[in-house]
Design goal:
By secondary structure, the protein is α/β, with parallel strands linked by helices. The chain folds into 2 domains: about 10-145, no CATH class; about 145-235 and about 240-505, Alkaline Phosphatase, subunit A (3-Layer(aba) Sandwich). About 50% of the residues lie in helices and about 10% in strands. It has 18 helices and 11 strands. It has helices spanning about 10-25, 30-55, 60-75, 75-80, 90-110, 115-145, 150-155, 180-190, 195-200, 220-225, 245-250, 255-260, 300-310, 315-335, 375-400, 430-435, 460-470, 505, and strands spanning about 170-175, 205, 265-270, 285, 345-350, 360, 370, 405-410, 440-445, 480-490, 495-500. The strands form 3 sheets. It has a 7-stranded mixed beta sheet with strand order 2-9-8-1-5-3-4. The protein has a two-stranded antiparallel sheet with strand order 6-7. α1 (about 10-25) packs antiparallel against α2 (about 30-55), α2 packs across α3 and α14 (about 315-335) packs parallel to α15. It is elongated. The N and C termini lie far apart (about 65 Å). The model is unreliable at about 145-155, about 290-300 and about 315-320 (pLDDT under 50). It holds the Pfam family Sulfatase. It comes from Candidatus Wildermuthbacteria bacterium RIFCSPHIGHO2_02_FULL_47_17. Keywords: Membrane, Transmembrane, Transmembrane helix. InterPro entries: Alkaline_phosphatase_core_sf, Sulfatase_N. This is Sulfatase N-terminal domain-containing protein.
Length: about 500
């Protein structure tokens, strides 16, 4: 490597992008990384060239370009540390002053510019090698994770007989991410959700009183419920780890889709954009509306990266994230009156009331507001917004359906919760209960709710529905609840694992 070959500004510029992708490769195809990398490299090259023209010094232009991009992409990490403490514009001024002071010292006192360039080139190369290695490993694992349909999904024999007389009902499976159980809301949030429950009851919904989830994390919960079974090591789920790559494939190639497809259903997916392209194997899928940045090829990952790295500086991407919750609800309402071939199975994932880290949030009427510091208040506001939108969706579905539909409102898990017993890296029993006790409300016409037990878990949900409405003969599985640590944590016995059986603790 030549001592005077300037590479480091471009390597430093792309490092945060590569690091972010290495942690989220399972969400986005590699084409989106290539597009984003081209954008960032192009921007850094243009910045460098402009500074060379202005300063007439390539070394100074290289240092300033590096500093500008590293400062920009680290801004959220810095600003978030001071959220609610002092005004962010003061933080920005101090941050900029420190950077400029460091730059002045470098430019003023570094004499051997060639050696300095060589050292920074080596440092930058070392930095990007690490995430590139992780990306290569992740892509290899993702390729191995492509499911062998019969072996991985382990489908049971499907009974082709149907007990239906007349048109098959449309089925709406709406996931309200992180929606708490009523017991959690009363006991830990001091919140009475009775008006929403009364609305649901008045429409004919059955609210499962002792509902709990099988897995306390989204990917595992959805992979299990949509395949009507517990996950195994072949699915990438073991005591020591779980593979998000395999889980996404299992969700996309799920048993519920296959069962209903054999009976003439059109599968429809409506997503929040959280899982990248996320069509999840559906015949028809919806992404945010045409004309938004999310609708243009290869921009989803770039926007997700910008939101994570600098959304307090770039207002537009965060605004798009804010709009995704509203989008999913609106799209489901439109589907109810659409010309999509019937019958339909609609799987909709609403990223609410689960908290986000955008600078904007939702008030109880779903209006955009500046994010509050109090997470509990934020959560309740998002829950009230979800209530409001869910009622509108239900009214629209019931009004537009010619055949009484099946409507499932369910949370994949409860909210994250910490109390005085919570410790870093250890499981709190209270926290596990809050996470594993979820919300389930079912609109099941023609006596369907009579077959639903009071302690239903998602793994048996579609088994019961298919048995009742389609004459299938699925056996019910034991209702288990597993607390899941994204990284290993310790239980009361000091055991370090990812999965912990908290079935007894989660019961009411």
């Amino acid at each position: 490597m030549k001592l005077n070959l300037i590479l480091y500004p471009f390597l430093f510029a792309i490092y945060p992008l590569l690091f972010f992708y290495s942690r989220n490769a399972w969400l986005f195809p590699v084409q989106e990384l290539l597009y984003a990398a081209a954008v960032i490299l192009g921007a850094s090259l243009i910045t460098f060239c402009l500074l060379v023209l202005v300063l007439r010094r390539a070394h100074a232009a290289a240092v300033l370009t590096s500093a500008a991009f590293l400062a920009f992409f680290s801004s959220e990490a810095v600003f978030s540390q001071f959220l609610g403490l002092i005004k962010l514009r003061y933080v920005a001024v101090i941050y900029a002053a420190l950077i400029m002071a460091a730059l002045y010292l470098i430019l003023r006192y570094v004499r051997d510019k060639k050696r300095f360039t060589f050292i920074l080139n080596l440092v930058a190369l070392f930095l990007i090698i690490l995430p590139l290695f992780d990306i290569a490993r992740n892509l290899y694992q993702m390729n191995l994770a492509k499911p062998e349909a019969q072996e991985n999904i382990q489908k049971e024999e499907l009974n082709n007989q149907t007990s239906l007389v007349g048109p098959a009902p449309d089925i709406y499976y709406i996931i309200l991410d992180g929606y708490a159980h009523t017991d959690t809301l009363k006991k830990h949030f001091g919140f009475d959700n009775t008006p929403f429950y009364e609305y649901l009851s008045s429409k004919g919904f059955y609210i499962v009183p002792e509902s709990r989830t099988n897995y306390g994390i989204t990917n595992l919960s959805l992979a299990s419920s949509l395949n009507m079974r517990y996950l195994t090591e072949k699915d990438g789920a073991s005591e020591s780890t779980f593979s998000s790559y395999r889980l996404i494939n299992i969700i996309s190639n799920n048993a519920v889709y296959d069962f209903l497809k054999e009976r003439g259903y059109t599968s429809v997916f409506v997503g929040s954009g959280f899982y990248g392209k996320e069509n999840f194997g559906a015949s028809v899928f919806f992404v945010p509306k045409k004309g938004s940045s999310f609708s243009r090829p290869y921009k989803t990952f770039l926007i997700a990266f910008l939101e994570s790295a600098a959304h307090r500086i770039l207002d537009k991407p965060a605004t798009l994230m804010f709009g995704q919750v509203q989008y999913v609800f609106d799209q489901v309402k439109e589907i109810a009156d659409s010309d999509i071939p019937r019958p339909i199975f609609v799987f909709a994932h609403v990223f609410a009331p689960h908290l986000t880290y955008d600078p904007y949030d939702l008030d109880p009427d779903c209006n955009k507001i500046t994010q509050k510091k109090d997470d509990q208040r934020r959560y309740l506001d998002r829950l009230l917004c979800a209530n409001k939108e869910a009622k509108e969706v239900i009214d629209e579905i019931l009004a537009k359906s010619t055949t009484p539909p099946i409507i499932i409102l369910q949370s994949d898990h409860g909210p994250d919760f910490t109390d005085e017993s919570s410790q870093e890296g250890k499981i709190s029993v209270t926290g596990a209960q809050v996470k594993l006790r979820n919300f389930t409300a079912l609109y099941l016409p023609d006596g369907g709710q009579e077959v639903i037990p009071p302690d239903l878990t998602p793994v048996n949900l579609f088994r019961l529905i298919f048995n009742h409405y389609f004459g299938s003969d699925y056996e019910l599985l034991e209702d288990k609840s597993y607390y899941v640590c994204e990284f290993k944590c310790l239980n009361a016995k000091g055991e370090a694992k990812v999965f912990f059986d908290f079935t007894e603790e989660a019961k009411f």
